[in-house]
Every structure is written in C-alpha cells, then in structure tokens.
# Entry
Amino acid sequence: MEDMDEIKHKKARSSQPWNQWQLLDSILPTGGFAHSSGLEAAVQTRIITTPDQLQIYLIHLLENTASLLLPFVYSATISPDTETWQKLDTTLNATITNETARKASISQGSSLMRIAASVFSEIPSLKSMRSLALSNESSISFHHAPVFGLIFGLLGFDSETAQRAFMFVTMRDVISAATRLNLIGPMGAAVLQHQIACTAEDLTVKWMNRDVSEACQTCPLLDTIQGCHGYLFSRMFCS
# Structure
C-alpha cells in the first residue's frame, strides 16, 4: 500500500495545473483590474488615441515589465523563503521610481498574498509568512512581483512558468483596462491578445532568469506617464 506522503505528493502533482489556472483566473479577487499600468494617463494625455498606438504601448509596457520585474519574480520563485522575500521586497521598494506604481504594486501584492494564504491552506507557510510580514517587526511592503514569485515557488512551479504567468497577467489586465477605456471592444481585445502573444513570449525569453542586479527600465517614458496618474482630474483606475 502507498504511504500517506506518497499519496499527498500525487495529489499535489495532480492539482498543480488547476492551481495555476486559478492563479491566472480573472475571478481571483486580487485587484488587478483596478489598475491600468499607466494606460489611463496615456489616454487622457492623448499619447494613445488609436488601437495601433495601444498595441505599441502594450509592447513597450511588456518589455518594461519583463526587464524590471521578472528578475524579482524569478528570484522569489527559486528561493521561496522569508529572508529572500524580505530582501527582494525592500530592493523593489527602492527601485520603483514613482509613487503611483509603488502603491499599485503594494496593493496588488498584499491582496494576492491574502487570497493565496486563504485559498492554498495546504501550504501553512503562506499564512505564517503573511502573519510575520504584518507584524510590527517586519518591513515587508508586499510588492506584487516578489509575492507572485513566492507563491508560485511555494506551490512547486518552476521559475519559467512563474515568469510567463506574470507576463500574461500583466498583458491581460492592461488589455482589460483598454476595453473599459473604450479604446477597443471585447472582440478587438481578444484579437489583440492573440496577435501580441508571440511578442510577449519573445520578451519573456529575452529577460527570463536574470538576477535582481540586472533589473532595469527599457522605456522610462512609460514610468513618467504612470506617475502623472495622480494628477488626472477624473479617473476610473487606481493607477
């Protein structure tokens, strides 16, 4: 007869694809759809007015995301422990250069950690790490990229899966924001996501598996645009 450890291991392996789909599902209440990654500011400042300009913006945004944030996702996935998480979180907090992006990252990261600690109860370390981070002695801010990698690492996913998943979530959320800003319709959004998939894969591979010391921005203008979000007279999104 199989022992209990082997049975648990088999169950964990069989549920892993389902865990991944749940983490990528738009129904997971992590707050990602409350953010446009600077797209709303770009629309209101007339930098983006057409679907073609949206596609160019999205490609630059994905490369910015890959070059700046994938190193944090990668490092957290391969070393999913409290010490590494704290170092990555502190480094990213000092690296993000505008307050709008910083608040958005913390908001999404804290929501994701709260949901993951409740949903994946078979991994008690998620709950204990969150409780420790919320204590007075901790300086963890819950930035999104390290939290994302930490959860994927604790669930047993490899680093490449985690990095691709992070890029997909970024692309999904920005395209969703574009539909609500009336830049494109739902059908156009689906077409755009398919058209840009190969480019997203190329960018992911280009910046994949890099150390945090290599994190950088390839298009600083996007960071400047997002920083203007707080000055908009009326806005639909938080960032």
